[in-house]
Amino acid sequence: MIKNKNILITGGAGFIGSHLFEKLLVNRNYVVIIDNFNERYYKGKEEYIEEVRMSNVDFKDFQIINSDLLDNSTYEKIEPEIDIIFHLAAHAGVRFSVQNKIEVMRNNILGIVKILDYAVTKNVKKVVNASSSSVYGNPIYTPVDEEHPKTPISPYAISKLSSEIYADYYFREYDLPITSLRFYTVYGPRGRPDMAIAKFFNLIRHNKELVIYGDGEQLRDFTYVSDIIQGLILSAEKNNSSGEAFNLGYSKPINVNELINKMYNVTNKPKKVVYTEKQKGDVDITHSNIDKAKKLLGFSPQVNIDEGLQRTYSWLINKEKV
Question: 171 phi and psi, to 5 degrees?
Fold first, then answer.
């Protein structure tokens, strides 16, 4: 476990970032968060940070920088000498990217170049780059291993593949120790409201209709957020992870129809579902081969979909009571 380090998390006020912030904070690290708290994309980041603060009142070793990665002055505000960077900041979402191609390209690609330049200049000891399973596109075989061809079918996926190419370039040309992690459909408390599980639970709780794109038979490798946090920390700890890319998933995909049935069982609400045409940029199946992460990182996902859905719903209910 990482302890007593100075750690920078870009996008640290977001879904995954806030969970990583909390985990690193309680393990006696000094954590710097850079986040622009952009409410146009999604709201609630201030609440996420406040939730972490209130749950960990004894831990005060952190700095929050409300700024943009593309602004040069942002980096002048970082107080400590950074040991490890977790680069999670990005405009995420396949559908968002289809409608906002230039914005996604600008933020996601230029953002990682800025961070990598900073890391080289400051001799940062390790960088972990958050990538995505979307870099594979529609798979030609499953489960998908890291050598699978990369044929992204959305601007978001292209930007994530570009981030990996830059990571590899900085590893080769500047000897920067960097690892890229391909996340598979992350869900859990504080989940982005545009993602399926968070969106569906919110609709179900208010007895509203679910709209399913396609026939609902598309398969998704849903991965609980605490398992992703485990993979992030392991990749920062392991020297043999540098210059590599790893899949992080649960590796037991289910189809969307099955997911919906499980969610209605958890909520005990009447089922209201309609189907519409498939959305551009959506892949038919995500299914991770995580053998490489198991072998080199010691990665071992722990939370199955039933437990993960129950935890997520309990968090939503408790949040509503506050």
Answer: -65, -45
Q: 140 in a domain, yes or no?
A: yes
What six digits make up the tokens of 301?
A: 């996902």
Instruction: Classify strands 126-132 and 178-183 as parallel, antiparallel or unpaired.
Output: parallel
Query: What residues are paired with 255 via a beta bridge?
Result: 219
Residue 26: domain span = 6-321
Catalytic residue among 30, 48, 156, 187: 156
Is the pTM higher than 0.85?
Answer: yes
264 counts as catalytic = no
Q: What angle do CA 113, 289, 91 make, to 5 degrees?
A: 30
Percent helix, strand, coil in the chain (nearest 5)? Answer: 45, 15, 40
CATH number of the domain residue 12 falls in = 3.40.50.720
Assigned domain for 311 exists = yes
Identify which of 127, 120, 164, 121 has the alpha carbon closest to the alpha carbon of residue 10. 127
Whether 69 contacts 90, CB under 8 Å: no
Per the domain annotation, does 213 fall within a domain?
A: yes
Beta bridge partners of 219: 255, 285
The owner of tokens 């409410």 is: 39
> How many structural domains comprise the chain?
1
Could you report the per-residue pLDDT of 63-118, keeping only the tens digit for each?
999 999 999 999 999 999 999 999 999 988 777 788 889 998 999 999 999 999 99
Instruction: Output the DSSP codes for 124-143.
Output: -SEEEEEEEGGGG-S-SSSS
